[in-house]
UniProtKB/TrEMBL annotation:
One of its GO terms (molecular function) is endonuclease activity. InterPro entries: Homing_endonucl (IPR027434), INTEIN (IPR006142), Intein_endonuc_central (IPR004042). Residues 86-228 form the DOD-type homing endonuclease domain. GO terms for biological process: intein-mediated protein splicing. It comes from the Bacteria. Signal peptide: none annotated. This is DOD-type homing endonuclease domain-containing protein. It comes from Candidatus Roizmanbacteria bacterium GW2011_GWC2_34_23. PROSITE patterns: INTEIN_ENDONUCLEASE.
């Protein structure tokens, strides 16, 4: 039998409403406003629980997970267009790293592209069902979109640490679906792509730039799969033909966000 905690119920549930009203007649808890840094009694309790390896919030956390108040970090992510776009964006301008007892995903985008970083934050929220932290860097024109959660690397199929150390690949599930592949390419090009036209010579250039050779080859392979003829450079993959550059720009809806 699962014990139901009133505070975990929906705010529209009558049991929650009755519980909330009953709190008005209760005296405040003895430890209100106290923590292990300002109260010896609380510190002693904290040290005892730590020594005996007692998890004081285990029951609460298990119930919160069942009610999906706490996201299940072991659950596989929905493999859809949102995740495919986010995968491309992370491979381009994201970073996964270990943090204290968890993992951190940070995507860094320029403040000159507000539509992109706002859209990226919305996608992160949809994919992980968790609102990311958004912060402007103090000494640079960049926005950090950050989220902490366990098993991020495993569920995203992206390794932890500096990306230059790895042979980066798009996950198989993306290659198996052309719609997902288009979304992943959009994420990659929104992060590290540029579209330009030199009017005097009527020269078109749609380029993806990156220092990871494996990732460049993934982009080249994907472009060829869709019938394009990319040029390969040391740190870039480019579409130089007018019709191909415009066609691909339309295919991935470059700089268009909904």
């Amino acid at each position: 039998m699962i014990r139901i905690f009133s505070q975990l119920l929906s705010k529209n549930d009558q049991r929650y409403i009755r519980w909330k009203k009953s709190l008005k007649n209760r005296p405040p808890p003895w430890n209100k406003g106290k923590n292990k840094n300002n109260d010896l009694g609380v510190k002693k309790i904290s040290d005892t629980l730590k020594t005996k390896k007692i998890d004081n919030f285990k029951i609460w956390r298990e119930n919160a997970k069942k009610l999906e108040i706490i996201p299940n970090s072991k659950k596989l992510l929905n493999q859809d267009e949102d995740l495919a776009f986010l995968t491309g964006l992370i491979l381009g301008d994201g970073h996964l790293a270990k943090a204290s007892r968890t993992e951190v995903l940070r995507i860094t985008l320029g403040t000159d592209k507000p539509n992109l970083w706002k859209y990226a934050a919305k996608i992160v929220n949809r994919v992980f069902n968790k609102k990311p932290n958004i912060r402007k860097r103090k000494h640079s024109e960049a926005m950090d979109i950050t989220i902490y959660q366990n098993n991020l690397a495993k569920r995203l199929f992206i390794p932890l640490g500096p990306k230059r150390k790895y042979k980066l690949k798009l996950p198989t599930w993306i290659w198996n679906n052309k719609i997902f592949l288009i979304s992943a390419l959009k994420g990659l090009f929104e992060a590290e792509g540029s579209f330009s036209i030199h009017l005097k010579t009527c020269t078109y250039n749609f380029a993806f730039r990156n220092f990871n050779t494996s990732l460049l080859l993934e982009v080249k392979k994907a472009l060829i799969l869709f019938g394009y003829h990319p040029e390969e450079r040391k740190t870039a993959i480019r579409l130089r033909k007018r019709d191909e550059a415009l066609s691909f720009k339309q295919l991935i809806k470059f700089r268009t966000f909904k």
